[in-house]
Structures are given as structure tokens and as C-alpha cells.
């Protein structure tokens, strides 16, 4: 399965929804894990990673 941003399961850009679909996880769980990891790393790297994935991951058809 190709890694794409979700067009239907998105809150901002569909990055976490697309990652959740790719990994086979519930999107809500992945969002919670992502936010916790971002906060534990002082949030800045998590925000940069999200923005990079937003521009690098294609949106699903």
C-alpha cells in the first residue's frame, strides 16, 4: 500500500490519517501518539515533521 495523505480521514491535512491507514492503526490512536511524542520532544520537531510530510506525501485519489 502506497503512503498517501488521507482525503477522508483528516483534521488538518490528512497526514496522520494517511499514516494510520498505511500502518493499519486507528487514526485517533495515531494522532494521540503523535501529539504525545511531539510534546515530549518540545513540539518543534513534531511540527516540522508534520509540515514536511504535508508537502511530501501525495494526497490519495
Automatic annotation (TrEMBL):
Its main location: membrane. Residues 2-60 form the Phage shock protein PspC N-terminal domain. It is found in: Cell membrane. GO terms for cellular component: plasma membrane. The chain crosses the membrane at residues 32-57. It is a single-pass membrane protein. It comes from the Bacteria. Keywords: Cell membrane, Membrane, Transmembrane, Transmembrane helix. The keyword Metal-binding does not apply. Pfam families: PspC. InterPro entries: Phageshock_PspC_N, PspC. PANTHER family: PHAGE SHOCK PROTEIN C. This is Phage shock protein C, PspC. It comes from Opitutus terrae (strain DSM 11246 / JCM 15787 / PB90-1).
